[in-house]
Design goal:
alpha/beta, 17% strand, 39% helix
Length: 160
């Protein structure tokens, strides 16, 4: 690593399926940069985590995530309710990926209209899940890479 610390991204997983959370955790464990900081099972806990309230009040223990993986069908508050709440919050660096079983075009449109950055149907196989996780990691890296600009040589060339 040449003495450099690799950029890590904190991930909050919100899904009421224990099996889906476990499989996601396994896939994320294979990445170099995505680190699950918490798993919650309902929308009310997503909001409490992001607010740093209740059992999530210690920000050192529960850091703000860079990425929220959000299921739509959860108890207490569903994913749409969480997205509606998020629209009113000052969390500009939080990337939200809806990860759900629904392929309903109305759900996709609504989630994206409410501010989700991406809508992903839960992969059917472990291989597809792993590929999705690596694509998420790459997407997060692209967000932080500086844009390299080359000098515009055309304008300079005519000034000799």
């Amino acid at each position: 690593m040449n003495g450099q610390t690799e950029q890590q991204f904190f991930v909050l997983v919100a899904d009421d399926s224990e099996n889906d959370r476990w499989l996601l955790s396994l896939a994320m464990g294979r990445t170099a940069r995505l680190r699950i900081v918490a798993e919650v099972t309902n929308g009310a806990d997503v909001i409490a985590y992001l607010q740093g309230s209740g059992r999530f009040a210690q920000r050192e223990k529960f850091p703000l995530p860079d990425l929220l993986l959000l299921d739509l069908a959860m108890p207490v508050k569903n994913g749409f309710e969480v997205l509606t709440w998020l629209r009113r919050q000052p969390l500009p660096s939080l990337k939200v990926v809806v990860l759900t079983d629904s392929m309903n075009p109305e759900h996709i449109k609504r989630a994206l209209d409410l501010g989700a950055d991406h809508f992903q149907v839960k992969p059917a196989s472990n291989g597809e899940l792993e590929s999705m996780v690596f694509a998420l990691e790459e997407s997060m890296l692209k967000m932080i890479r500086p844009v390299l600009r080359r000098p515009h040589t055309d304008a300079v060339a005519g000034m000799t």
